[in-house]
Structure of Chemotaxis protein CheC:
Amino acid sequence: MSREEFNDIELDAIKEVINIGAGNAATAISGLINKKVNMTVPKINILSFDEIFGDLDAEKVVISIGTRILGEIHGSILFILEKNKIDEFSSFYIQIEEKNKVILNIEMFKNMVEIISQYFIKSISKFTGLEVVSSNQEVVQDTLGAILSTTFIELSQFEDKVVDLEIRFLVSEEYEKIIGHLYYIPTTDSLDRILKSLKVR
């Protein structure tokens, strides 16, 4: 199902809910790192399976943090960041020794993504009235295509669509803006249930 099968009201409703979650996550991260954080979701796309592998750079090596969604809706959330952006993302936290850099950077990335995912889930639950919980996170380094394919297979019964959210981070004025992507891969009927609960379908 392509983006054209969703109207602007439906897309705006999803974007608004996610942006509220992003704002709350930014506030939480700001308190954690003692720096002003601005986080926005300027773009939302709903892509079919074929569009995902046709439009994206499926061979790009990325770091993915995956969270399984459980409760009254199901699916997986994948937060994707290019491998070469991990150092920038994690430098928000603390200066670390070079020998421990890779391990600590991944852990810091995981901690920040956990905050982001939890606030997104809370926002969805609050505005839909649906009970939504998350499972433990999984860190994977692989090509984007391999990560998405594995997630589709693990979900077994998934919709032929993925919600692609572009997330932009700006931390203080001393860092460059970092762009990551959050993919919500819903199981059958989960996205439709969210839209109906938001009263836009």
About this structure: The chain has a mean pLDDT of 81.
